[in-house]
UniProtKB/TrEMBL annotation:
This is Flagellar motor switch protein FliN. Gene3D superfamilies: SpoA-like (2.30.330.10). Belongs to the FliN/MopA/SpaO family. It comes from Phreatobacter aquaticus. It comes from the Bacteria. GO terms for molecular function: cytoskeletal motor activity. One of its GO terms (cellular component) is plasma membrane. It holds the Pfam family FliMN_C.
Amino acid sequence: MAQLETVSLDISVVLGTTKMPIHQMLRMARGAVIELDATEDDEVQILANDMPIARGQVVINGNRIGVQITEMLPRPVELR
């Protein structure tokens, strides 16, 4: 178990996605707003090393933003 304590993971939370032409992205500047296909009440996807592992809800506690896990996703067969 001590070996697991040294393993690092990149954890990402996906709030939503969008598609746009590359020329539009290249014209963006600081402060530009990218509209997502999600609302504030939608579930977020939680990724570990770019692999979906869970779903959750955004929670705000004072001036901190977090994610509450609502569902753990099954692991792919090849990882069991």
